[in-house]
Amino acid sequence: MTLCLARPWTHRAARSATLRGLLLALLMPVLATAQTQTQETSAAGSGPIRLRQPQGQTVGEEGTTKKADGQMPQMMSDRDISGQRLAMAAPPVAPSDFEVYVRRLNQDQPVRRFGSELLHRLHDAADTARAATPVLPDYTLRPGDEIIVSLWGSIDADLRLQLDRNGQVQIPRVGPVMLAGVRQADAAEVISRRVAQVFRNFNVSVTLGQLKAIRVYVTGFVEQPGSLSVGAVSTLMQALMQAGGPSAAGSFRQIQLRRGGALIGQYDLYDLLVNGNRIGDRFLQAEDVIHVGPVGTQVALIGSVNRAAIFELKAGERVADVLRMAGGFSPVSDTSRLSLIRFGDRNQGRIAELPLPSALDQTPINGDVLGALNVADLTLPSERQNKRVRVEGEVARPGDYVLPPNSTLADALAAAGGLTGQAYVYGTTFARESVRKTQQENFDRALRDMETQLTTHNATRRTASAEEAAAAEASTQATSRFIEQ
């Protein structure tokens, strides 16, 4: 075993080095603060005073700091102030019983509720819309919002400040500034007046950073009723999409916005769907209530129209309004009439006819199914059909020709340029396709009748000996060969 003892001066040196390190660590913050104050005091008369925050730090509520990863654009974030992701929109609404009923009437072709495709696309784009909604100048600041303040001139500062729970921000060497309830467009002026109490000859710029999410309530006939955390500059439409949109029993045309117990607006989705009008799509405030009423009168329009769908009608809307919402008739539609299947008459198989334009002022009832006829699928009377003929042989221009309905053989020969000098008129043959088909059908029918008679005769024929049986079998085989031939 070996024991090594250090020299006494070595212990004293180690203790001295340790003490020097502790003293230096304790004095460094004090020295740095004193040096900063000295620089600011000496620079007050000769240059701008710097209030720039440490790189990568932001002043938060009650003086706390948080890491900043660069200035944020003046857009609404898709996360709330705690970093939690906002609610996602619900999947598309399932078809209603009326949609299933109309599909059966439309030969199993799906007919969806008018506007359901738009809601589906808005659901897919909801996350992008929340992340890119611009902040309007009328936006009102509230506790938890973040602002970016830039000062230059006699004072130089780049600050990221968050409104505390009292609605104030703390500006170094200036003090608190009350901003809660101030419009975003007026924030720069409010801060400028407060800073002017301490400094002169400066400029100020204020933009918005991350905004605090607000809570609203969506009630009534929606897919996911309840409270939602939405972006600070969300609109009624965006919140409705986050709640999944109106349910199968929810109205597209009776959507209310309530604030503080008072009705402040009604929104009709058809204004956007039909007219492209978004005037009723208001910006939301905290604690707003969006209420979706029950669906109103539903009428389907199917067939040869530009947009076959199920439409929700308000009181007083007529057949003409349904046609307008559907984009009118298609180019091949019969514009003189509409068919009407009324739900109460479906068991009797009754289909009424609505003559147009006199029926345009009629008011449909709930459950009506209107149909537009496609005339391209109909066969015209023979006296109104053009004639397609083929002329070949000794004519000037043999080929296929389309002639007017009342054309004759002479017209067909004239269309083909007339006869050549080698034509033998007495050897002309004339064949008609419809006659050939009729003759073939009659011949096939005669063969079936003859086969049935012969088979029945042979099956009921009695034989008294082996010779008669062999003769009957030979007769049956001969009959079969004859029919096949």
Folded structure, characterized:
It contains eleven helices and 20 strands. It has a five-stranded mixed beta sheet, covered by helices on one side. It has a five-stranded mixed beta sheet with strand order 15-14-18-16-17, sandwiched between helices. The N terminus is likely disordered.
Short note summarizing the structure:
By secondary structure, this protein is of the alpha+beta class. The protein is 30% helix and 22% strand.
List the helices and strands and how they pair.
Blueprint: H1 8-43, E1 49-50, E2 57-59, E3 65-67, H2 97-105, H3 116-124, H4 126-131, E4 146-153, E5 155-162, E6 168-171, E7 175-178, H5 187-195, E8 202-208, E9 214-220, E10 226-230, H6 236-242, E11 250-259, E12 262-267, H7 269-275, E13 289-294, E14 297-303, E15 309-313, H8 319-325, E16 337-341, E17 352-355, E18 369-372, E19 387-391, E20 399-403, H9 409-415, H10 433-460, H11 466-484
Parallel strand pairs: 1-5, 9-13, 14-18
Antiparallel strand pairs: 2-3, 4-5, 4-8, 6-7, 9-10, 11-12, 11-13, 14-15, 16-17, 16-18, 19-20
Helix pairs in contact: 10-11
